[in-house]
Amino acid sequence: MKAVVPILTVLAVIVALWYAAAVWMNAPWERDQAARAGTAITFAQLLPLTMVQERPVLPAPHQVAVGLWEGLAGQAITSKRSLVYHGWVTLSATLLGFAIGTTAGVLLAVGIVHNRAMDLSVMPWAIASQTIPILAIAPMIIVVLNSVGVSGLLPKAIISAYLSFFPVVVGMVKGLRSPDAMQLDLLRTYNASRAATFWKLRLPASMPYLFTSLKVGIAAALVGAIVGELPTGAVAGLGARLLQGSYYGQTVQIWAALFTAAFAAAALVALIGAVQRVTLRRMGMAR
Amino acid sequence: MIWLVFAFGFWAAAWALNVRLAASSLMRSRAGRLAVPAIFGITLLVVWEGVVRGLAVPGVILPPPTAIAARIAAEVPTLWLDFVQTFVKGALSGYIMGCGAAVLVAIAIDRSPFLQRGLLPVGNFVAALPIVGIAPILVMWFGFDWHSKAAVVVVMVFFPVLVNTVAGLAASEVMQRDLMATYSASYWQTLWKLRLPAAMPFIFNGLKIATTLALIGAIVAEFFGSPIRGMGFRISTEVGRLGLDMVWAEITVAALAGSAFYGLVALIERGVTFWHPSQRH
Amino acid sequence: QDAVTLQLKWVTQAQFAGYYVAKDKGFYTEEGLDVTIKPGGPDVAPVQVLLGGGADVMVDWLPSALAAREQGAAIVNIAQPFKSSGMQLTCLKESGVATPADFAGKTLGVWFGGNEYPFLNWMSKLGLSTDGGDGVTVLKQGFNVDPLLQKQAACISTMTYNEYWQVIDAGITPEQLVNFNYTTEGVATLEDGLYAMEDKLADPAFEEKMVKFVRASMKGWKYAEENPDEAAMIVLENDDTGAQTEAHQKRMMGEIAKLTAGSNGALDVADFDATVAALMGGGSDPVISKVPEGAWTSAVTDKALN
Amino acid sequence: MMKDRLNMAGPVIEARGLGLTFQTGDGPVHALKDVNLTIGRGDFVSFIGPSGCGKTTFLRAIAALEQPTEGTLTVNGMTPEQARKSRAYGYVFQAAGLYPWRTIAGNVRLPLEIMGFSKVEQEARVNNVLQLVDLEGFGKKFPWQLSGGMQQRASIARALAFDADILLMDEPFGALDEIVRDRLNEELLKLWARTGKTIGFVTHSIPEAVYLSTRIVVMSPRPGRITDVIDSPLPKERPLDIRDSAEFIAIAHRVREGLRAGHSYEV
Amino acid sequence: MMKDRLNMAGPVIEARGLGLTFQTGDGPVHALKDVNLTIGRGDFVSFIGPSGCGKTTFLRAIAALEQPTEGTLTVNGMTPEQARKSRAYGYVFQAAGLYPWRTIAGNVRLPLEIMGFSKVEQEARVNNVLQLVDLEGFGKKFPWQLSGGMQQRASIARALAFDADILLMDEPFGALDEIVRDRLNEELLKLWARTGKTIGFVTHSIPEAVYLSTRIVVMSPRPGRITDVIDSPLPKERPLDIRDSAEFIAIAHRVREGLRAGHSYEV
Ligand SMILES: Nc1ncnc2c1ncn2[C@@H]1O[C@H](COP(=O)(O)OP(=O)(O)OP(=O)(O)O)[C@@H](O)[C@H]1O
Ligand SMILES: Nc1ncnc2c1ncn2[C@@H]1O[C@H](COP(=O)(O)OP(=O)(O)OP(=O)(O)O)[C@@H](O)[C@H]1O
Ligand SMILES: Cc1ncc(C[n+]2csc(CCO)c2C)c(N)n1
Ligand SMILES: [Mg+2]
Ligand SMILES: [Mg+2]
Question: What are the ABC transmembrane type-1 domain coordinates in residue numbering (chain B) (predicted)?
Fold first, then answer.
C-alpha cells in the first residue's frame, strides 16, 4: 500500500513527460504541413493540433487512453474490434505455451540435475537456442507444423513455449541444486533414495526459484504468443492488432494493443506472485 | 529410411559415449568438458541431416546442415557485412548504452526509496511491452539505419539490468554496511568500496541476460525497416526468396555470435566476481 | 464437398475481394467446394506454405513465383485474375524528385520478401546501382508509409489501391506527390495470380478441383467489380482483426477493379513473356537466369472458362 | 527396521591405519593420517583438537560421507557404506540444518518417512523425541520461529527419532551460551545412560569433552592424527559440579596439554 | 586523524536510563530497559548474558548503529552520532565480515583508505597490525583462503589499524577453539595494557569475561537490564593460569550465579 503514492507520482511524471514529448515529436509534421500550405504557424496554434493527430509520431496519453477504453470497454467482448477478444486469443496461446514450456523446462532441469551427460551437453545448447532470433524461425515452425497437419492454437503455443522454457530450465536447475551439502548429507545418512531426495529435498528447496522463473517465463510466453501470431496470417490476437496497426499506420491502435499486452503480462506476473505467496506461506518459507 | 536409421543409430551411439565420458576421469580436463557438448551438438546436426534426407524434406522448408555449411562458406563477405551492421553497430552499441544507462539510473534511484518503490513496478510494466510492438515505433522515431536498432536494444536491456543492479546495490549485508558506518564513510566511499563490488554478481546476472536480448532485439528490429544489409534484413528477404540455406546461415552466425558474446561476459564475470562462492564451487 | 485451402499473399483486404465474395455468395459451394481462405502477412511466404502442404493454391506475384521456381519449388500459374500492375514509386515533390533521372543520391523505400524484383529490374535498367554510392540508397521499407511521412526516404513503394491512399489520408495532397507507375515506366510485372503445385496438378481430380475453384473465383471477381461497395463490406466482415475501415476498403475495391478489369482469369502469354524479359534483363544480377519452362498452364482456365 | 545387531561383543567402530587425502586445486590436503581407534558399544567418545585437524572429516568418514583413501574402517563389522545402508546412525551436523519448508514436527518426521515407518508409529516417535528435547508444543512451528538453541535441539531430536544405535554429533552445542549448553549436556548424558547408545562427539570445549565422555580423543593437525586417547575415570553419574572436582581438573589439564602440543603454531 | 581528546577526565561512555524498543510486526520488543552504566577511560568492560538479552544492541547503540528510544547515552561527552563522525571507535563484529573481493591486507587497509591516510602510512599500519595478530605473510591471500580463526584475527586487525580510542568487540572469539582463544586473549590483554584503550567486549564465556575484564556487566533478558556489575580485583598482569586461582573462581562463580538468575528459563 505504501507503494501507491510513489507509483502514482512516477506515473504522473511519466505522463507529463509523455505529453511534452508528444508535442515535441508531433510538431514537425504540423510545421511541414503549414509550410506545404505556405502558411506560418505559431506555437499556440500548433499545440492543440499535436494532441489530436490522426497518425501521430507519438500519440498523446489521452489518445491512447481513449483507444484502450474503446478497445476494452467500448465493444461487445465478442466483437472483432474488442481488445478483450484479441487479448483472449493471445492469452489462450500464452497459457497453453506456458504450460508446455514449463513442463518441458522442469523435465529438462530434472534430467540435467540427475544426469551428468545431460548436464554437460544440454545447457550450452539451451543457451545457444535462445540466441536464435525467434521472429526468423517462427514462420518456419508454423509451416513445418502445418505440413504435418497441426494448425490453430498449437503452433503459436509452441513458439511461446520455446521462449518460456529457457528461464524455467535455468531457474529450476539452480533451484534443484540449491540444497547445500549438509542438507544432502543428512539424507545420505538416512540412506534415502534418489526419488526421496528429489521429493523431500530438491523439489521443496527449488520452490522460490521455480516461482521466480515462472514469472519471467510467463512474460516470455506472452511475447512468444504475440510473435507466433504474426506468421499465422495475423488473423486475430494482440500480435495481429499490432501488425495491422503498423500496416495501416494507426499509431493509436498499436499503442492500445501494446498496453493491453503489457497489462496482460503484468496481471499474469501478479497472479503467479499471488500463488507464490500463498504456496510459500503454506510451506513456511515466507515470513 | 537408411538415413533415418543411421541418424538414430548415431544418436544412440553418441549418447552412450557421452554418458561414459561424463562419468569418466576425463571430465577433470578442460578438453573433456568441452567434448561432451560438442558431441551432443554434432549428434543434433547428424540427426537433422538424416531426418531431412530420410524424409525428403524440401530444401525450401528445412535445408540440411551440409547445405547451410556450403552457403556459409560461399557467403562469408555478405555474412560479415550483415554481422557488422547488426551486431557491432546495432546490438553492441545499444548494449553498451542500455547497460550503462541502467547502472547509472539504478545508482541514481538507489538513493531514493521513494523512486524505487514507484519506478520499479512501472519499470517492470514497461519491460513487459512486447518488442514486436516497440520496434516499429522506434524505427519510425530513429530512422531505418542502425540507430533505431540500437534504440530497440537499449529498451530491451535497460530493465533487466536496472532491476538486477538495484537488487545488487541492496545486496551488501547489514554488517558490511554497519562497518562502513563505524568508519563514518561518505556515501560515495560506501558506494565505491562496498556496494558496487557487492552488487557485481547481480549486475553480471543482468548483463548476461542482456547479451541474448541485445542480439535478438537488433535482429528483430530490422524486420521493421532497415538498410539493405543486416542479419534481420537478410533473414526476412531470403525467406521471401526461399533462400532458406542463407536464412539458416544467418541464424548460425547469430547463434555463434550470441553464444560467444554470452561466453565473453561470463568470462569477465569470472574475473570480476572471482570472490563469489558461485565462482569457486 | 471438396476442401480447398487458399493462401493469400497479404492480410485480408479488398485486394482479395474476389475470393471472399465467391465464398460469401456461395459460388464455391455451388461448385461443390469448401474453401478455406488463409490470410497472409509480412511474415508469411506463401510458397513455403504451399510446399509445406498448408494450402492447395496461393496468390502470388509472378516475379517471386518464378524466382521460387528456379529455387526448385515446382509451382505453376493456373490463372491470372489481375491484368495490370498496381505498383508505383511515390515521391514527395519537396525532396526534389521529378523524373527518374533525379533518383541518384536519393533514398528509396522498397518492399522486400519477394516484392523487390520489379524495382531491382527497373534500377538496373536506369543504370543505378542499389548499394548507395553514386546510385540510390535502398531502404527496406517496413509495413507502412511512415518513411515518406517522416521524410526518411524521398520515395517509397506504394500500391495504387492501398499505400498511396494512406499517404493522402495522412494529409498530403496529390499535388505534393510525384508518382512513377511501373506500367508507365515499362517495367510492370504480373501481380496477383493463382499458383498450384505442379505434381498435384498432374492428378486429374486435383486439376478438376482447381478448375472449379478458378471458375467460382472469377465469378466472384466479376461480381466484385460490379458491386464494389458490397464486395468491400464482405471483405470487412471477413477481417478477423477488426482493424480495417469501411472507407479505406471501399476505395481500395474501386482501385482493384481497375486492375482486374482486363482479365477473364486466363494468363495473357504476352504479359508473361514481358515479365520474364524484364526479370532476365536485370543487368549483372538477373532475378532469374534462364527462361522458365512450364511455369504456367492454360489447362485450368481453358476448362474453367469454356 | 532390522538393524544389524550382531557383533554385540566386537567393537562398533574400528579404524586401522586410516588416511584421507583431499585433492584440491593447490595440491593434496592430508586431512587424516594413520588414524587407529577402536570404539566399543556404549562408549561416549569425544573428539577435540584445533581447527582443521580432521575431526569433522573423521566423523564423516564413519558416516560414509567421505571415502578414506588409506587403511580400513569398519562399523559394526561392516564397511561404513553398508552400515549407512542399514541406517545404523543418527548424525547431528554442526549447524541445525532444518528444512525451512517443514515444521519442527515435519523435520523430525523426515527420517521416519524415508525409512517407511507407519503413520501411527511416526506420530508416536515424533511426540516422544520432541518431549525428550523439551520441545513439546513447538511441533507446528517453523524453524525460523524458534531461537537458535531450540533449532539445535530439534536437530538432535531428528537424529534420535529413528533410534539408531550410533549417534554422531559434530559440535552440536557450539552456538549456545554457557547456561543452555550446560543444561543440554546434562540431558544428553541422561539419554546416553538410559539408551546405551554409542556416541561420537566433536567439541571445541575442553570442559564439555571431559564432562561428557568415557574417552577423549585429542587430535593434531596437518595431517590429522590422534595424539592422545584419554580414558575418563569419572563415574557414569555426573552432576554439573563434578567439574570442580580435582579429578575433573586433572583430566582437563591433560587434554589441554595434549591440545597445546598439537598447536605447534602458527594456528 | 584528529580525534577528540578532550574530557580525558570524564567518563568515556555514560548511559543514563537508557532504553531501546524495536517496533516489529507482532508488537514492540524491549531490547534494553533502564540501563545505567559508566565506563571510564582505559576500562575493559565485558558484557555477558543469555542469548537475546541485548548485549549486541547495547554495543550497537554506543556505536550509533541503533537509536535509543529512551534515556541518554554519551560517548566522550558527545552523542554517539558525533563520536562516530569523529571516528572514535573500532568495532569488531561477531562474524569476521571481511569483504571477499579484497585481500586480507586490502581489508585491513579499508578504514585507512576511507579516513584518508597517506599511502606510506597505510602500508606501515597494515604491516604493523597484521604482525600484531600473527598474520604477516597472509596479506595477499583472500578471506576464503584462510581458516575461520585467521579471518577473525584479520577483522580484529582491521579494527585496530586506525588506532581508535574505543574498541567495541562483539563475541570476537566465538568461533575459535580454546587454545587459539587463550592465545588471543593474552594478546588482547597485552595490547590493552600497552595502549590504554577503552574496550567493550561481549562474550558468552564466563572464564573469558573474568580473565579479560576490569568490570563485568551481567545482563538479563526481556527486557534487557543490567543485573550485576562486578569489578574485578585481579591485577592488570594476568598469566593464563590465574584462571586456576581462588579469586578467579570466586568471580566466575558470582558471574555464573548472576547469569543463572537471568535464565528464568525456558531457553
Ligand atoms: N572438501 C574438502 N576439500 C578439501 N579440503 C578439505 C575438505 N574438507 C575438509 N578439508 C580440509 O581437511 C582438513 C580437516 O578438515 P575438518 O573439517 O575435518 O576439520 P575439523 O577438525 O572439523 O575443524 P573445525 O574444528 O574447524 O570444524 C582441513 O585442513 C580442511 O581444510
Ligand atoms: N532489528 C531488530 N528488530 C527487532 N528486534 C530486534 C532487532 N535486533 C535485535 N532485536 C531483539 O532485541 C533483543 C536483543 O537482541 P541482541 O542482538 O542485542 O541480543 P544479544 O544479547 O546480542 O544476544 P546474542 O547472545 O544471541 O547475540 C532480542 O530479543 C532480539 O530479538
Ligand atoms: C514486408 C512487406 N512486404 C510487402 C509489402 C507491401 N504489400 C502489401 S500487399 C502487397 C501486394 C500484394 O498483396 C504488397 C506489395 C509490405 N507492406 N510490407
Ligand atoms: Mg568441523
Ligand atoms: Mg549478539
Answer: 101-272
Question: B173 and B226 in one domain?
Answer: yes
Residue the block writes with cell 514481358: C274
Per residue in E188-217, pLDDT tens?
A: 888 888 888 899 999 888 888 999 999 999
Residue B281: predicted pLDDT: 45
Q: Does any domain span residue B65?
A: no
Same domain, B259 and B143: yes
The amino acid occupying position C283 is G
The SS3 call for residue B215 is helix
In chain A, ranges of CATH 1.10.3720.10 domains: 83-282
Q: Is the CB of E225 under 6 A from ligand 2?
A: no
User: Cα–Cα distance between D182 and E206 in angstroms, integer?
Assistant: 13
Cβ within 8 Å of residue A73, ≥6 positions away: none
Helix (H, G, I), strand (E, B), or coil: what is residue B186? coil
Evaluate whether ipTM surpasses 0.85.
no
- d(CA D101, ligand 1 centre) in Å: 29
Residue range E36-64: average pLDDT? 88
Other Cβ atoms within 10 Å of E11 Cβ, number = 18
Contact state of B181 with E99 under an 8 Å Cβ cutoff: no
Q: Are residues B137 and B20 in the same domain?
A: no
Cα C51 to Cα A147, C196, C297, E139, distances in angstroms: 8, 9, 18, 71
Query: In angstroms, what separates the C-alpha of B128 from chain C's closest C-alpha?
Result: 22
Q: B240, C115: Cβ pair inside 8 Å?
A: yes
Which domains does chain E possess?
Answer: 1-88+175-267 (3.40.50.300), 99-163 (no CATH)
Output the CA E174–ligand 3 centroid distance in Å: 76
For B6, the domain range is 2-57
For D10-42, the pLDDT digits (tens) are 788 999 999 998 776 666 778 888 899 999 888
- Looking at the fold, whether B48 and B135 belong to one and the same domain comes out as no
In a domain, B62, yes or no: no
Query: Helix (H, G, I), strand (E, B), or coil: what is residue C87?
Result: strand
- Three-state DSSP class for residue A250: coil
> Are the Cβ atoms of D256 and E178 closer than 8 angstroms?
yes
- Residue D147: band (very low, low, confident or very high) from pLDDT cuts 50, 70, 90: low
Q: Is A267 on the interface with B (CB under 8 A)?
A: no
- CATH value at residue B238: 1.10.3720.10
Decide whether any atom of ligand 2 lies within 6 Å of the E52 Cβ: yes
Instruction: Provide the domain count of chain B.
Output: 2
Claim to verify: residue B129 and residue B219 sit in the same structural domain? yes
Query: How many C-beta atoms lie closer than 10 Å to residue A218's C-beta?
Result: 27
- The reply to whether B49 and B125 lie within a common domain is no
Q: Residue C295's Cα: distance from chain center in Å?
A: 17
Q: How far is C-alpha C154 from the chain's CA centre?
A: 23
Q: Is residue B227 included in any domain, yes or no?
A: yes
Is the residue at B119 inside a domain?
yes
pLDDT for E200 equals 93
* Judgement on whether residues B42 and B81 belong to the same structural domain of the protein: no
What is the edge-to-edge ordering of all strands in the sheet holding E27-39?
Answer: E27-39, E13-24, E70-75
The DSSP-derived string for B95-144 is HHHHHHHHHHHHHHHHT-HHHHHHHHHHHHHHHTS-HHHHHHHHHHHH-S
**pLDDT given for residue C59 in this prediction:** 92
CATH, domain A83-282, list 1.10.10.10, 1.10.3720.10, 3.90.920.10, 3.40.50.12780: 1.10.3720.10
d(CA B217, CA B151): 9
Type and span of the H or E element at E34: strand E27-39
Closest CA to D16 of D77, D86, D73: D73
Q: Are E239 and E185 in contact, with CB atoms under 8 Å apart? A: no
Interface test with A, best of B132, B163, B166 (most A CBs within 10 A): B132
- Same domain as B37, residue B89: no
